[in-house]
C-alpha cells in the first residue's frame, strides 16, 4: 500500500453511516489529537497488541496512512518474542520476496535481504518479530505489509499508549490485559481501546453467561467501558490490505466512535459507527459459525433452496434474540 494524503467526500443517512466530508488524513489526525488533548510536539501514541493477520493489517493500514506524520503520531505493534520461522515457511517467504520487485528493492535498500537468503539456505533461523519489522506477518506470508515498528516488551509498548488496538484472540485477551493493567496503575490519563477480537468466552461463576472481549478488557484494566470500542465486519485481512472493498462497524460510546470512524475510513474501507457494542461483538463471532453451518446445509441437502431458507430463518431468529440480550447486558440486567 502507498500512503496518499487524499480527500474523501462521503454522504450519509441517519443510521450511523458516513455523514460529512472527511478531509485530508492530516486533518483527521489533528481532529483526533485535539479530542485526546495532545499538546504540540507530543505525538499520539497508537499501539497494536497482538500480531495475527487482522491485528497486523490494521496496524499496517494506520502506518501506511499516517506514518509519514512522525511528529504527530507514533504507531507500534507488540508481539511476543521468540517464535521461530520453520525452514519450509522461510523458503516460501523467500519465493514471495523474489516475486515482488517492490518488496525485493525495499529489503535491499534496508540491507535486510541477505538474512532471507541465509534462512532459505538453512544457515539462519528467522523469528516472527524479526520478519514483522520488515512487513511479513507469520500468519499471512503471501501478503507483504509495510515495515512496522515492533516492540516485544509489553510494558514498553503500552505504558504511555493513547490508543490501544486489541488484535488478540478472545482466548488470550483477558490474560494479556490483566498484565497490561499492572503497567497502568500510575497512569493519569485514560487510554482508548479498540478491540478487533471476535468471539465470546463462557463465564460460569454465579450465573452461567457469556462474556465479550470488551467486557474482559473492562474488568481486567478498570478502563471505563465508554473508552472501549469494538471494530469488526465481514472481512478478510489480506483483501483489505490489498485494497479490495470492505466495510466494518466501530461500536461504542458516541464520544469516541464517530471521530474514530472518520479517522479509520478509507476509499476502499468504509467504517460505519453504531452504539450497540455487545450485539456487534457477539455477532462478530456468530457470523463465522453461521457461515460454517450454511456450508454444511448446502452440502448435506444438495444445495436445497428450501433447506437454506429454513436455516437462514433460524439464524435470523437467533440474531433477533441476541440483539435483545445484548441490550439487556449493556444495561447491566
Labels describing this entry:
333 residues, alpha/beta, Rossmann fold, 3 domains, 8-stranded mixed sheet, two-stranded antiparallel sheet, 47% helix, disordered N terminus
Structure, explained:
By secondary structure, this protein is α/β, with parallel strands linked by helices. The protein folds into three domains: 25-82 and 149-275, NAD(P)-binding Rossmann-like Domain (Rossmann fold, 3-Layer(aba) Sandwich), CATH 3.40.50.720; 87-126, no CATH class; 281-330. Helices cover 47% and strands 14% of the residues. The chain contains 13 helices and ten strands. It has an eight-stranded mixed sheet with strand order 3-2-1-4-5-8-9-10, sandwiched between helices. The protein has a two-stranded antiparallel sheet with strand order 6-7. Strand 1 (44-49), helix 2 (53-66) and strand 2 form a beta-alpha-beta unit. Helix 1 (25-35) runs antiparallel to helix 11 and helix 8 packs parallel to helix 9. The longest helix is centred in the C-terminal third of the chain and has 26 residues, at 305-330. The termini are far apart. 34% of the residues are buried.
Amino acid at each position: 500500500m502507498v500512503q496518499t494524503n487524499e480527500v474523501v467526500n462521503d454522504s450519509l443517512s441517519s443510521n450511523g453511516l458516513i455523514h460529512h466530508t472527511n478531509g485530508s488524513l492530516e486533518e483527521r489526525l489533528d481532529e483526533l489529537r485535539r479530542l485526546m488533548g495532545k499538546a504540540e510536539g507530543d505525538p499520539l501514541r497508537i499501539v497494536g497488541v497482538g500480531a495475527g493477520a487482522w491485528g497486523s493489517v490494521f496496524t499496517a493500514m494506520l502506518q501506511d496512512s499516517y506514518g509519514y506524520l512522525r511528529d504527530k503520531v507514533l504507531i507500534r505493534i507488540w508481539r511476543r518474542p521468540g517464535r521461530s520461522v520453520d525452514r519450509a515457511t522461510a523458503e516460501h517467504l523467500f519465493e514471495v520476496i523474489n516475486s515482488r520487485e517492490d518488496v525485493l528493492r525495499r529489503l535491499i535498500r534496508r540491507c535486510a535481504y541477505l538474512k532471507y537468503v541465509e534462512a532459505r539456505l538453512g544457515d539462519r533461523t528467522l523469528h516472527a518479530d524479526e520478519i514483522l519489522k520488515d512487513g511479513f506477518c507469520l500468519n499471512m506470508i503471501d501478503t507483504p505489509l509495510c515495515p512496522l515498528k515492533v516492540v516485544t516488551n509489553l510494558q514498553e509498548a503500552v505504558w504511555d499508549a493513547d490508543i490501544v488496538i486489541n488484535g488478540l484472540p478472545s482466548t488470550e485477551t483477558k490474560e494479556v490485559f490483566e498484565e497490561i493493567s499492572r503497567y497502568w496503575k500510575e497512569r493519569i490519563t485514560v487510554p482508548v481501546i479498540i478491540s478487533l477480537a471476535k468471539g465470546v468466552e463462557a463465564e460460569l461463576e454465579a450465573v452461567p453467561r457469556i462474556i465479550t472481549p470488551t467486557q474482559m478488557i473492562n474488568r481486567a484494566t478498570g478502563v471505563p467501558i465508554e473508552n472501549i470500542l469494538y471494530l469488526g465486519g465481514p472481512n478478510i485481512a489480506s483483501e483489505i490490505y490489498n485494497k479490495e472493498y470492505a466495510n466494518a462497524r466501530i461500536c461504542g460510546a458516541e464520544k469516541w466512535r464517530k471521530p474514530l470512524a472518520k479517522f479509520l475510513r478509507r476509499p476502499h474501507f468504509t467504517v460505519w459507527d453504531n452504539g450497540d457494542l455487545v450485539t456487534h461483538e457477539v455477532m462478530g463471532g456468530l457470523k463465522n459459525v453461521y457461515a460454517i453451518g450454511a456450508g454444511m446445509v448446502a452440502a448435506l441437502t444438495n444445495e436445497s433452496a428450501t433447506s437454506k431458507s429454513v436455516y437462514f430463518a433460524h439464524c435470523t431468529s437467533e440474531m433477533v434474540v441476541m440483539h435483545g440480550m445484548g441490550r439487556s447486558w449493556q444495561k447491566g440486567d
